[in-house]
Amino acid sequence: MRNLKKDYTYWNQLTKSDIDDNIKQALNENINYYDELIMGIPGSHLDENEFGKETNVLNGSTYLQVLINNPNHIGVHTLGKFEPYFKGTHKLERDVINVISEDILDGKAADVDGYVSSGGTEGNLQAIWIYRNYFKSLNENSQTRSEYDNTCIVCSADTHYSIDKAADVFNVNLKKISVDNRSRELAYEELKVTLETLQNKGTKNIIFIVNMMTTMFGSVDQIGKIVPILKASNLNYKIHVDGAYGGFLYPFTIENPEISFKNKEITSFSLDAHKMLQAPYGTGLFLIRKGYFENTKTKSASYVVGKDYTLIGSRSGANAISIYKILFNYGPYDWQEKMLNLVSRAKWFYEEIQQLNIESIYFKGSNIIAINQKHITQETASKFGLVSDDSKNPTWYKVVVMVHVKRAKLLMLIQDLSDHD
Ligand SMILES: Cc1ncc(COP(=O)(O)O)c(C=O)c1O
User: Fold this and answer.
1) Atom number, ligand 1, closest to the C-alpha of residue 159
2) What is the arithmetic mean of pLDDT over 275-292?
3) Which of 43, 75, 228, 294 has the most CB atoms at less than 10 Å from its CB?
4) DSSP 371-408
5) What is the mean pLDDT of residues 276-283?
């Protein structure tokens, strides 16, 4: 037995009431979405219907019951074989995957596999892992410097840094294509030249990331212009959609969205539930057409019935239940209404600041307004909790219209902007 120390610097036993007091004090030191001016981040308090301050969430909601029962959702439950112990909540996770793949992203649920990930980063990493291995199996006999050297990720300069992370983790090359300063559209000529150069240097496979709303601008990549360039290059390619931001918004605010499972060019999506859906942090989704998960099957996961295909391994079933509760509580019509409401508030704000000649960027169907830094003082940024594209050298600050960013708060910002201009 280890002889424990007589004194510990950080660790001692506390009473339950002291622990509770410490947590309450910590919460008081955090920002409070309900009352404060926090307008720059795509986050909010938990969904007000499922987890509202006055509901029964604190005394026995089914979400908390699941959390306490602690089902493990390890693995991918759409693949047919999985752990029997938690089959009840696994089924509800499959219901969630079915809703998203068919009723939100316009695919056929029977053709899609998926799981509840920890968020957008994991979904993006999972995609890169799958395609990297898929292309490796295609080019089994090719002679390259390293195993994955003939594959390259290509995406716009506005793409989220989780793709840089994925390139690093999975040892895959990455090329980012410039975007237009205003339209945030890819420089298509540069894309063509980059593909040619890559090909000349031995690249055979492209993992292309299409953004369904970028983090900073809410811009959506024009897949209809990108695919012909990919096709013309004669390189193998697979398209993953980063819908971490737009997954629960764009399909409801844009008529006939070009980005959905209806588009055969798209193979996979990642979505976040802890942004627009206001589910607890650590909740997102990864969806992919059937047949691809085999590329990340860890055969040595011998104790897991049905094996494991995911990055995360063990994960809480409560995350899937939070999505289940929110999606089925709203249903499609009320959900759309909620999203349209945010978008209409965002558009109203954009139009108001246009009248003040504030240089800003806003895309139809989005809830993000990016404002040029020349209009934003340090005081304004910190007073309204605005987030910049680059904390050291900002060009744009964004306002993200989440549920708690009400018109009254936006009016205060409009007043502030007009005072400083
Ligand atoms: C477009 C996009 N992709 C990926 C991510 C990463 O998501 P997460 O922080 O949930 O891992 C974000 C987060 O802001 C995002 O906006």
Assistant:
1) 1
2) 96
3) 75
4) EEGGG--HHHHHHTT-EES-SSS-SEEEEE--TT--HH
5) 95
- 211-238 pLDDT, tens per residue? 999 999 999 999 999 999 999 999 999 9
Contact 69, 316 (CB under 8 A): no
Is any ligand 1 atom within 6 A of the Cβ of residue 114? no
Residue type, 251: P
Other CB atoms within a 10 A radius of the CB of residue 165 amount to 14
Ligand 1 midpoint to CA 279 (Å): 14
The CATH number of domain 32-49+332-420, selected from 3.40.50.1000, 3.40.50.720, 3.90.1150.10, 2.60.40.10: 3.90.1150.10
Number of alpha carbons in the 13 Å side-chain half-sphere of residue 126: 36
Fold (CATH) for 68-328: Aspartate Aminotransferase; domain 2 (3.40.640)
- CA 164 / ligand 1 centre spacing (Å): 12
Q: Is 119 in the pocket of ligand 1 (CB under 6 A)?
A: yes
